[in-house]
């Protein structure tokens, strides 16, 4: 839609989603295209780091209980 210059309203109707939702997606994409659509195991770098640190904390806590 962004690359082809299609209208948000038309694209939202085709996808059967709210134009407001599509506007948010477009804004997120324009802000940070590489990390704008996280999910399915894909995380933003700061979220990935946070998850790894939380895992390390859990692992350390388990080791100290043993």
TrEMBL record:
Instruction: Note the superkingdom of the native organism.
Output: Bacteria
Kindly provide the name given to this protein in its UniProt entry: Mobile element protein
Family annotation (SUPFAM superfamilies) = Homeodomain-like
Instruction: Provide the residue span(s) of the region labelled Disordered.
Output: 36-66
Q: What Gene Ontology molecular-function terms does this entry list?
A: DNA binding; transposase activity
GO BP annotations, alphabetical order: DNA transposition
Q: Compositionally biased, Basic and acidic residues: which spans?
A: 44-57
Species the sequence originates in: Anoxybacillus flavithermus
């Amino acid at each position: 839609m962004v690359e082809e210059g299609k209208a948000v309203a038309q694209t939202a109707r085709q996808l059967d989603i709210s134009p407001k939702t599509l506007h948010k997606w477009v804004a997120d994409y324009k802000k940070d295209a590489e990390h704008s659509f996280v999910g399915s195991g894909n995380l933003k770098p700061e979220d990935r780091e946070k998850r790894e640190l939380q895992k390390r904390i859990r692992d350390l806590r388990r080791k100290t209980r043993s």
